[in-house]
Amino acid sequence: xxxxxxxxQSSNPIVSxxxxxxxxxxxxxxxxxxxxxxxxxxxxxxxxxxxxxxxNTVNIIGEYVDKYxxxxxxxxxxxxxxxxxxKIFPIVFERAKGKYIAVCEGDDYWTDPQKLQRQTDFLExxxxxxxxxxxxxxxxxxxETKRKFRELPERDIDTLELLGARPFATASVLFRNLxxxxxxxxEDSGDTILWCHLSKxxxxxxxxxxxxxxxxxxxxxxxxxLIQWSKKMVSWNNTLTQNHPEIDSSVFKKRNLDQFxxxxxxxxxxxxxxxxxxxxxxxxxxxxxxxxxxxxxxQLIENLLxxxxxxxxxxxxxxxxTPVNFMQQEIKRLIKIMGMLFQKDQ
Length: 346
Prior knowledge:
Layout: H1 2-5, E1 15-21, H2 28-36, E2 44-50, H3 57-67, E3 72-76, H4 88-93, E4 100-105, E5 109-110, H5 115-125, E6 129-140, E7 145-148, E8 155-156, H6 159-162, E9 174-176, H7 191-199, E10 203-216, H8 223-243, H9 249-269, H10 273-286, H11 290-309, E11 314-316, E12 319-321, H12 323-345
Parallel strand pairs: 1-2, 1-4, 2-3, 6-10
Antiparallel strand pairs: 4-9, 5-10, 6-7, 6-9, 8-10, 11-12
Helix pairs in contact: 7-8, 8-9, 9-10, 9-11, 10-11, 11-12
């Protein structure tokens, strides 16, 4: 079915589908098939960036490239770019020739063959809009449950709402290809940063149609991954703070505090109380404004401990104490050390 349809693709696509993938051998076929199922009245192109996967992802992509060489453009990295601090989205976007760009990561996929046509028709009819997004299915692979990503009515989405609970999945969007204006200077390129930047260049419309699946899984996620992800989130929030001085700083502070719960909570759940306080301090310092965060993060830690089980006892040397008391002692000790270091610097 695809062979006849895609002979009509040209070198001047209307939509560029940009896919980034890494070690997605279990999922990438669904992703690509979701691209190929699109029923459009216009030509499109598919650009797939693989960040040096160590599984079979590259070979699977290669099968589709061999079958649709005029449609699919692969970018196969020989070294992992993300680990070297490179921004992946700009690498892909600079190859996009379409008037519009759709994004889908290699573990998500599209389910509606009319997705691109419907979204393109909307942007064509409404030049004041820079992006359109839709609803999705949130598929939790951990417990095999599915639900709608959000229960929201059709409406415009502003910058402030983008900074709250994520209103839509990345795979659901289509936006105008504005060239270098998409990510000025190739700066940090998290999707929330991109959506918020685009919200300053035009309106964003949310449609209720369910057209994609967001897969939530924890394959290969380690304690170190959670910590590094939280640091990355702090970096993104620092970029957002700079990009959007019109937004109250409390919004970004809440985003950071919400993110800190994951690595700190994971350490506490595994009884690594001392490490929890040390990682908390790393995250606090990463914000660049430790005095603004310290008290609330310590309160967060204490709340997490109480939620876990305040009846547990820890044996430290010859003393027996509860987790909460132990953490409070650690906080007092660290504060004392910080005070000594502060006095030494004076």
